[in-house]
Every structure is written in structure tokens, then in C-alpha cells.
Specification:
Blueprint lengths: L17 E3 L3 H21 L9 H21 L6 H4 L5 H9 L11 H22 L9 H29 L3 H7 L1 E3 L16 H19 L6 H20 L1
Antiparallel strand pairs: 1-2
Length: 245
């Protein structure tokens, strides 16, 4: 049996000034999801020139969510759910914030970990309700829009929290999610995060391929928005010809 769990032994720091925290697959997921969700909201606007990309953005988000769920078990040290889902420490963390005590956190702090789960669930819910509308269904349109609006609020709160924590902790959390590293001066006893096992990337790649294949079984035009628009135009033209006859 292949063990895809990362080694428990800490990595030897390779950079005296910075400590490795977030692995590359996690960072790519994060920013791809940011871009995909942004595209989904922009393309949902009435009259948007990107309207044909709305459904494709939703399906891409679905595949990304599937990857993140898997990576939460086989990814690098701080990408794993076990490293940041700590509800038992949530009350202590919140009380510390209320008292003005901001303890440095190498990975997600307890509140940030819960926020991550909530955002993943919210995106998944938007995708799920949106998938039910494909083919002209309108029964769940209000629910889809309602959850999407709730997601927008959650994203706003998340961005505000990141900015606030960056100021209070004097640590650029956005830059850390770009580079994957944090200042060692803020975490003097930290060592580089344990990376994912070598077999984790091939397993994740297979999962992404399987997810994309599954999406195409549900919606054959999921990732070809141009084809969907052409089909709609063809159907409309056919209707006009029938009327003329």
C-alpha cells in the first residue's frame, strides 16, 4: 500500500530570513479560485460581454473545490485540514483578539481555518444550485442568487479580516499566499512546512482529470462557452426560419 501521508519529520530551513508555509498547489488553487469566482460574478451581470463564461466559471470552480478537498488530506503540512481545523481553540483565539492580543500563526489561525471551510462550502453551494439551472430550469434561481450574494458578503468579510490581521500582526498575509513564505523573525522557532509526499501530485492530477470528466458527463459544453452561445444562436435562427415558413 502506498503511503501518501507526508513525513512527520520537519524540513530543514533553507532560508534564514523566511520560512516556507504554503505549498505551490495550494497557492495555485487559491488564486485560480479567486479569479474564477470573480469571473462568475462579473459574467452574471445582465448584458455582460462575458456572459457566456458564467457557467464555465462555475464548473471550473467545482473542479477546484474537488481538488482542495483532496489536497486537504494529502497536501503539504499547512494545507491539511488537520493542521487548521481546530474548533477547540476558536474561543481562546477570539477572546485574545478582543483583548488586543494577536499571536502570530504560521498557518491559518483557528478563526481563519473555520472561515476557509465556510467559504469552500459557500462556493460549493453556489455551484450546486447553479448546476440545477442548466437547461432552462428556473425553480432554484432565487436560491442560487441568494447564496451567491451571501458568498459575496463572506468574501468581503474575508478580505477585511486578512487586511486587519495583516495590520495587527504586522505580517503581509497576501504576499505570503503569493510567495508561500513568511518572515522568520515573526516565527523564530518555525521550520519549513513538511511538503506533500511525491505521490500526492499525481493523485491530485488524476482527481482533477476525473472531476473534469465527470463534469463533462453532466454538461458536455461545460468548458466550451463559445459552443453554447453558437448553439443558442443556431436554435434562434432555426426558430426564425420556421416562423417565416
Amino acid at each position: 500500500m502506498i503511503d501518501i501521508a507526508a513525513s512527520a519529520a520537519p524540513a530543514i530551513p533553507a532560508d534564514r530570513d523566511r520560512v516556507q508555509v504554503w505549498d505551490l498547489p495550494l497557492r495555485l488553487f487559491h488564486w485560480l479560485l479567486v479569479g474564477t469566482v470573480a469571473l462568475a460574478f462579473v459574467s452574471a451581470e445582465e448584458g455582460s460581454g462575458l456572459g457566456q463564461w458564467h457557467i464555465a466559471a462555475g464548473w471550473i470552480a467545482a473542479v477546484l473545490i474537488g481538488f482542495r478537498l483532496l489536497w486537504g488530506f494529502i497536501g503539504g503540512q499547512h494545507a491539511r485540514f488537520a493542521s487548521f481545523v481546530r474548533p477547540g481553540k476558536l474561543a481562546e483565539h477570539v477572546l485574545g483578539l478582543l483583548r488586543g492580543r494577536v499571536a502570530p500563526s504560521l498557518g491559518h489561525n483557528p478563526l481563519g481555518g473555520i472561515a476557509t471551510l465556510v467559504l469552500l462550502v459557500a462556493v460549493a453551494a453556489v455551484v450546486w444550485t447553479g448546476a440545477g439551472l442548466i437547461g432552462g430550469g428556473e425553480a432554484g434561481e432565487e436560491l442560487h442568487e441568494g447564496i451567491a450574494n451571501a458568498l459575496l458578503v463572506l468574501i468581503g468579510l474575508h478580505v477585511a479580516a486578512v487586511v486587519l490581521m495583516s495590520v495587527l500582526s504586522k505580517e503581509n498575509l497576501v504576499a505570503a499566499m503569493v510567495t508561500g513564505r513568511k518572515m522568520r523573525a515573526k516565527h523564530p522557532r518555525a521550520v519549513d512546512a513538511v511538503p506533500a509526499a511525491g505521490v500526492a501530485l499525481p493523485v491530485a492530477a488524476l482527481a482533477i482529470a476525473a472531476g473534469a470528466y465527470g463534469v463533462l458527463q453532466i454538461d458536455g459544453q461545460a468548458f466550451t462557452p463559445g459552443a453554447r452561445a453558437e448553439a443558442a444562436d443556431t436554435e434562434a435562427a432555426g426558430g426564425e426560419e420556421g416562423d417565416n415558413d
